[in-house]
Structures are given as structure tokens and as C-alpha cells.
């Protein structure tokens, strides 16, 4: 039996790899990505559905990662772009962690994962894809979700369409509001 495994989002990611190795931004001494999509998304709330933003408040937003490690992989960012947490005020950091807490609680109640990775990649050397805009990853995990496909084939298997996942999250966030 011969079957195909389709991961159409992967091609956009592969095409974007070269563009993501960008020079240092002269204003802050940090590497600048070709497009800070967090800032773009923050400035365009009318485009939230298209941009997979599932929750926003006066301080920041929660969105689905377009290139997820696992189903339900969320990103959390404040509207104000800073490269490190230490460059935010104490109040801004509280707002940031409140959004991370909300994202984690919603992942837990909606998807019921067996575990979760929550973390920050600060700076390009640490793996930040948008080094000028610090953001958190909230990644639900299940036993066995890492297998030969991602280790050998460098392909992640995501069992649900991103738009369907986004609808589920939007509904869950609206119920919690």
C-alpha cells in the first residue's frame, strides 16, 4: 500500500529559512527578522482570524503557531515589541505572564495534554525566530508525539487543521472571558 503524507505548511517554513537569517538591527543591537509578524498582527486586530490570533486584550495576544511543534502550539506576545523580558516594566511582565498562564490553562482544559512545554527563546542564538519581539511558546505534549517522522524525516505530524484548532481556541477563550 502506497500513501502520501502531506504537510503543506512545511514548504512555507523551508522557503522562509533563508530570509530569517538577517543582520543585526542597528537600533537595539539584536538580530532583526525580515518581518516582525507579532507587531503586524498586533496592529491589525481586524485580521485576527486570518492571522490565527485566538485571544487578545489591551496588553497582548495569544495566537496559534503557524509552524507548530504539536497540535495546539500557542505563541504569547505583548503588543509592545522588546527583545528581552528585562526591557519590559514590572507591570508589563505581569501582563505577559498572565497571558502565558491563560494560554496554558486553556490548552490544558481544551486539549487535555499529558504534559506541556512552556518557554522563551531569547535571541537568535537561543532559537528565537523573531528576536526583536520576545514571546512565549506554550506547547501541549502527549506520550509518543515525538517519533521517527520528526527525528529522521524532519516533518511534524499535526492531526488537525490550524483553522479548526483556532476556532476551538477562540470558543474556549470566549467562554473563559
Number of strands: 7
Please identify the structural class as seen in this structure: alpha+beta
Count of runs of 4 or more consecutive helical residues = 5
Beta-strand content bin: 15-25%
Average pLDDT taken over every residue: 80
Task: Describe it.
The protein is an alpha+beta fold. It has helices spanning 9-17, 37-42, 90-111, 148-151, 162-176, and strands spanning 24-25, 30-31, 53-56, 60-64, 74-78, 115-120, 136-141. It has a 5-stranded antiparallel beta sheet. A two-stranded antiparallel sheet has the order 1-2. A hairpin with a 3-residue loop joins strand 3 (53-56) and strand 4 (60-64). The longest helix has 22 residues, at 90-111. The protein is globular and about 35 Å long. The N and C termini lie far apart (48 Å). Mean pLDDT is 80; it is low at 21-32 and 147-153.
What's the gist of this structure?
By secondary structure, the protein is of the alpha+beta class. It is built from five helices and seven strands. It has helices spanning 9-17, 37-42, 90-111, 148-151, 162-176, and strands spanning 24-25, 30-31, 53-56, 60-64, 74-78, 115-120, 136-141.
What key phrases describe this protein's structure?
alpha+beta
Secondary structure elements and their pairing?
Elements: H1 9-17, E1 24-25, E2 30-31, H2 37-42, E3 53-56, E4 60-64, E5 74-78, H3 90-111, E6 115-120, E7 136-141, H4 148-151, H5 162-176
Antiparallel strand pairs: 1-2, 3-4, 4-5, 5-7, 6-7
Amino acid at each position: 500500500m502506497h500513501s502520501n503524507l502531506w504537510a503543506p505548511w512545511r514548504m512555507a517554513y523551508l522557503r522562509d529559512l533563508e530570509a530569517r537569517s538577517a543582520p543585526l538591527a542597528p537600533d537595539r543591537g539584536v538580530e532583526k527578522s525580515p518581518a516582525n509578524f507579532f507587531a503586524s498582527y498586533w496592529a491589525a486586530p481586524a485580521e485576527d482570524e486570518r492571522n490565527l490570533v485566538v485571544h487578545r486584550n489591551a496588553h497582548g495576544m495569544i495566537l496559534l503557531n503557524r509552524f507548530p511543534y504539536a497540535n495546539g502550539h500557542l505563541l504569547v506576545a505583548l503588543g509592545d515589541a522588546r527583545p528581552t523580558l528585562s526591557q519590559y516594566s514590572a507591570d508589563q511582565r505581569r501582563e505577559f505572564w498572565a497571558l502565558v498562564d491563560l494560554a496554558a490553562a486553556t490548552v490544558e482544559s481544551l486539549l487535555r495534554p499529558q504534559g506541556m512545554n512552556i518557554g522563551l527563546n531569547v535571541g537568535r542564538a537561543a532559537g528565537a525566530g523573531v528576536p526583536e519581539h520576545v514571546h512565549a511558546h506554550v506547547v501541549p505534549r502527549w506520550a509518543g508525539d515525538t517519533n521517527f517522522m520528526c527525528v529522521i524525516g524532519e516533518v511534524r505530524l499535526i492531526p488537525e487543521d490550524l483553522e479548526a484548532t483556532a476556532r476551538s481556541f477562540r470558543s474556549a477563550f470566549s467562554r473563559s472571558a
